[in-house]
Amino acid sequence: MSTATVSPHDDARRLAGFWLGVLGTACFAVTLPATRLATGTVDDPQLAPAFVTFGRAAMAGLLSALFLLVVRSPWPTARQWRMLSMSMLGNAVGFPLLLAWALRSVTATHAAVITALLPLTTAMVAAWVLHQRARPAFWVCAVLGSGLVVLFAWLRAGGHGGFGFEPADLLLVGAMVAASVGYVYGAKVTPELGAEQVICWVCLGALPVTLPLAWWLWPANAADIRPSAWAGFVYVGSVSMWAGFFAWYRGLDWGGALRVSQTQLLQPFLAMLFAWPLLGERPDLLSIAFALAVVATVFLSRKLR
Q1: Of 87-101, 112-126, 187-201, 255-269, which gets the smallest average pLDDT?
Q2: Among 248, 250, 283, 249, CA closest to 268
Q3: Contact indicator for 58, 242 with CB cutoff of 8 Å
Q4: Major location, coarse class (predicted)?
């Protein structure tokens, strides 16, 4: 029997990758409260969800163009562009648009619990797209976690006296599916292009569409928009849509996808934590309890994978 030798350099690289994954997760966790800051609420609207969607992607596209010029990245092949296009539809358009619409109607804390299922939806898309197999117990956990989310949405829906479903919950589910598709197709091409280049080519590829739409959707009452809304918009464009993916993909590369992906389990808790000072949404015991239960099912499903 032979044993593999692990050098201190490898250990340091894995540890750095783990903490880069934590950093990426923290960057993504701020997306929920930052998006709600940008869009406002139904009673106090700020930036239109469509403008936030295409504006953040356009901002990330311009930053990506500068980065790709500096590093002189080679142009992707036609096959790579097909995978990048799927990632573009999921991460640059589908997820931010559905999320922005949903956060007009529900709190960031509520959305944090619903989107806690993102690791599971990503696994489902991976099983379909990448033909990965999992034990039946894994899918039992997926159904259990989904049931917990449905129960939470039913109990917390404010539009029906506390009972019923919010239409925004369907938008959040759609956002998770879109993000999962983007993650999986982006992961397929990452070994060929590199961690940072994947998100840059995704954002740059969408720029011919997102930049004109952002210009066309520019708010007529821009001077009346609160500075906090503009700050939220700048964050989701420069960090959530761009810089956060640098840390995330590099963390997956250095630390190993299986281990580092578990750092995403921290996201609902971090989103609730950041929503408190940014939005004044103090997390309640029910939200915390359901978040813990959902994250437990996700963690167990990872162990059974």
Answers
A1: 255-269
A2: 283
A3: no
A4: membrane
